[in-house]
């Protein structure tokens, strides 16, 4: 396990830091822009990129890139929703998402306002639909940004911190413990499980505002 993980982490670290950061930026831009977030695993891209963080400068740069990428993607979704909302909703992809999901997003936004924007960053499906839905609503872009900026900051700090901390801890222990690789995998697995449970709890808690 240690040999495999060391090879993987060394491969990621061998990529130029600028390229890694740009890939994370593009991944988040696609993940949060209109409907693309349903197929682009932005969280996976960010965690992989964060395992190669080797200095405070790289950490801060990656966090900023992820935040800016997320906000750029959501801004694109807002603009497209504002100008082409009905067309996107009626498109083939929009129909595949399901009319019930679009209706849920509208009801949720109508009932919760900015809170829906903040929480949707951590919910599946809705994190891709809300920017488009907000763009087609009466909410101003400035209000949308006021709620989505802190959510994007919190999301980015959580993912980059866990990825970089787990990888850093593994590198320190790999030469001393033969089961360090299992600790690394366990730490990532626990984080993924925690994220899943939090999303599940949030979804159940907010479900009454969507129906």
UniProtKB/TrEMBL annotation:
Lipid bilayer topology: Multi-pass membrane protein
Keywords per UniProt: Cell membrane, Membrane, Transmembrane, Transmembrane helix
First-listed, main subcellular location of the protein, grouped into a coarse class: membrane
Ranges where the VTT domain occurs: 40-164
Pfam families: VTT_dom (PF09335)
Protein family per UniProt: Belongs to the DedA family.
Entry protein name: DedA family protein
Native organism taxonomy: Bacteria, Bacillati, Actinomycetota, Actinomycetes, Micrococcales
